[in-house]
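Treating backbone geometry as a discrete language has practical consequences that deserve illustration. The amino acid sequence and the backbone structure tokens for this protein are reproduced below.
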Amino acid sequence: MAGADRAVTDELSWESLLAWRVARQRLARRAPAQEWLDVVRRICGLHAQVQSSAELTLSARVDGLGRDVVSRALWEERVLVKTWAMRGTLHLLPADELALYVGAQGVLKPRYEQASWRKAFGMTSADAVAVIDAIRTALDGPPLTRDELADAVTELLGDVHLGESVRGSFGTMPKLAAFRGDVVFAPSKGQRVRFTRPDRWLGEDWKPAPAKEAMAWVLRRHLASYGPVTRESFARWFGMPSAAQAGRIIASLGDDVAPVRLPGGQECWMLRTDVADAVTAKPGGAVALLPGFDQYVVAAPREDSPVLPAAFRGRVYRPQGWLSPVLLVDGRIEGVWRHERKGRRLSVTIEPVQAIDGAVAAAALLQAQRLAAFLGTDEPEISWA
């Protein structure tokens, strides 16, 4: 019988669970600079809706990270790749793992097969497939800007409306092509983004991994840093419309997953090999200033008050998918913060949920100093709102 069907044998406290997550995500003790790529692997890539936030997400977990490490890894060394991934959001992923993240998308029903999508975009499923096929053909050459790609699709299909679907709608069609493994980002041309194909950017032998095996790999990677999960939380993290489908995927790992219970009786699952460490984990006073869209915040159990007071939730999880920078204390979201840079001056303002003690304030100052070092500014001015 699959692990997800067996009786719960272990109970986790919130204190232990959060301490384990913080340690796994390199927020209790930072990684040395040379291990930055291992950190990206561990946290399932960098959320890259805002490029600077992706860099700060990594800097929060790595000591002595160079400011140009991410850009060089993307556009010169090609060990990172930028594309649409989980939840249809932009991510920076390890290039040698891209095939797995793309392959995992294959377990989902294509969006263009949904009636609501076809109505919203005024296209049939056949139209969408034709556009995606044309995008692949158009990118069999140098990288193209969005306008250049739209013009090429228009010419290939002889249909202005279908070509315009590439130009507008916030990248919907290139995104769907990325899910199939036909689009990644190339270096921009001035302020205009450009697209290319993975096999042209990473090597002609590149191809997506088989869907079922790839999804099992993604789930294991996620569980190793963000477990335990419920069906609903994993579905939300990946962008899966059905919690039932997420449950079947979790169950497919069999004895490799173990059922555990959180305070209040909620049942969820984690890798069996991680249970003992999670049960015995202890908080160590870890304090972090996490940027907007940080991976920890994306996957945090946001409905649970031990992580984030309900009254404060709207300050962190904002409309249109925007996630605020947060003050994290032993895995709990204890406030939001912002920074402003003017020349070599850096101002950091922290708004805590409640009064904090001197140890947390001192640790937050240290994190602000590390931020200033990464940004190349003078000693920060820190204030508490």
Observations:
- Residues 287-384 form one domain.
- The CA atoms of residues 57 and 294 lie 6 Å apart.
